[in-house]
UniProtKB/TrEMBL annotation:
InterPro entries: Epimerase_deHydtase, Lipid_A_modif_metabolic_enz, NAD(P)-bd_dom_sf. SUPFAM superfamilies: NAD(P)-binding Rossmann-fold domains. Residues 4-133, 175-279 form the NAD-dependent epimerase/dehydratase domain. This is UDP-glucose 4-epimerase. It comes from the Bacteria. It comes from Fulvivirga imtechensis AK7.
Length: 371
């Protein structure tokens, strides 16, 4: 397999994957619509995109374009998607159209012109709440929080007897518990690809990315990753806004580790028809993350603002069990959060960021999507 198509290949993760593949002697075609929300206005080719990447400016819903492109390649990475949890709760048609219909359009093209491997970017968001256990050691896969408790600023999760549950690393067997339109669309992408791959004998792998961070992530998109959003606020001398109490736990994985995991999925025959968590295997609170970023940027005097509000679609805790990816793909993260944060801050020194966070928060509030 030497020639690879990456849908969404000019974006944050896709561009780093392009670097990884080219370094390992692959040819890369990137299909990307260069969305203004991600790339800004009048973007024809991101400066960071590898010179050896052939960029096609087009839409993943363009049936004829996809049919032409898949004839040229040996394998496909399907990364094209809209990615905002909050935004997905009011731009329902657009998220469903791009994420679900775009995937269906690609798959119909692949049915006509099968490739040797399909790798689809899924998401930790499909889990909803992560895996929990109670004091007796019993696992809880469908933990939920009620609106009533959230209105009372009670942020944690409990069992049916009202006992506090403890979050533990979430493995792939954990049942999906979809809490946003975005999560639903990512689950649809994952299942459509695996189902179609099975039916038409196209080896297919789904990678459930956790919270990916690193250079090139859009700083002016208020629906992007949390570290990029916090970076934008700090660059503009504003406090990062944190929902709830800031003690919610997440798994942050560096984009280079993710790119390497993607290549391993391509090159590992045993990955066919499998699903893998791609994370760091570590958990950090959002509050601690904001403080670490501010310190690394030399802006420790800017303390995060804890809003005490719940955003519809958010969950309390979720971090990855990556033992399956380690066992089958040989994946293990190599970039620590501290090292990755230093690299991010070095990149930020040359960046400008338009901070749209307040506007996005007001949009959610006006629609009743915060509590």
């Amino acid at each position: 397999m030497k020639k690879i198509l990456i849908t969404g290949g000019a974006g944050f993760i896709g561009s780093h994957l392009g670097d990884e593949l080219i370094k390992n002697k692959y040819e890369v075609i990137a299909l990307d619509n260069l969305s203004e929300q991600v790339h800004g206005p009048d973007c024809f080719r991101p400066e960071y995109l590898n010179d050896h990447v052939q960029l096609i400016n087009g839409d993943v819903r363009d049936k004829h374009l996809l049919e032409e492109l898949v004839q040229e390649v040996d394998a496909v990475y399907h990364f094209a998607a809209l990615v905002g949890v909050g935004q997905s709760m009011y731009e329902i048609k657009e998220y469903t159209d791009v994420n679900n219909l775009g995937t269906a359009t690609l798959l119909e093209a692949l049915i006509k012109n099968p490739v040797k491997k399909l790798v689809v970017a899924s998401s930790m968001s499909i889990y909803g709440e992560g895996l929990y256990q109670d004091q007796a050691g019993k696992l809880h896969q469908t933990a939920k929080r009620s609106i009533e408790q959230l209105k009372n600023n009670d942020w944690e999760t409990y069992n049916g007897e009202g006992k506090l549950l403890t979050p533990i690393a979430t493995p792939e067997f954990k049942a999906p518990n979809l809490s946003s339109v975005y999560a639903l669309s990512k689950y649809d992408q994952e299942r459509l690809c695996l189902m179609t791959g099975q039916a038409y004998n196209i080896p297919t792998t789904a990678l459930r990315f956790f919270n990916v961070y690193g250079t090139r992530q859009s700083l002016s998109n208020p629906y992007t990753g949390v570290l990029a959003i916090f970076s934008s606020r700090l660059l503009n001398e504003r406090a990062p806004l944190i929902f709830e109490d800031g003690n919610q736990q997440r798994d942050f994985v560096h984009v280079r580790d993710v790119a390497r995991a993607c290549r391993l999925a391509l090159e590992t025959d045993q990955s066919a028809q499998e699903v893998f968590n791609i994370g760091s295997g570590e958990s950090y609170s959002i509050r601690a993350l904001a403080q670490l970023l501010a310190e690394t940027m030399g802006k420790e005097y800017i303390l995060p603002e804890i809003t005490g509000e719940y955003r519809v679609g958010d969950i309390r805790h979720c971090f990855a069990d990556i033992s399956k990816a380690n066992r089958i793909l040989g994946y293990s993260p190599q970039v620590s959060l501290q090292e990755g944060m230093r690299e991010l801050v070095e990149w930020l020194e040359d960046q400008m960021a338009e901070d749209h966070v307040d506007k996005a928060k007001a949009e959610l509030s006006s629609r009743g999507l915060t509590v």
